[in-house]
Write a structure and sequence with these properties.
Strand content: 35-45%
Distance between the termini: 16 Å
Structural class: alpha+beta
Radius of gyration: 13 Å
Number of strands: 3
Helix content: 10-25%
Shape: globular
Largest sheet: 3 strands, antiparallel
Order of helices and strands: EEEH
Length: 70
Amino acid sequence: MARFYTLAIERTLFGEICLRRRWGRIGTQGQELAHYFVNEKEAVILFLDLTRLKRSRGYSPTKRGSAPTH
């Protein structure tokens, strides 16, 4: 089964730092989870930890914007 997993660090309208995680089957919208942080450093640490974890489970990076399709 083809799956996707995306991570993005963004700033909210209120100035908070947000790490958004999306995952699911390719061709669907999937699920989303957001983590909010006081500073960007904490978001980057979680981003890198999750990236290492997902790569160890077989996920590989793709060109930005090429996946997922929904």
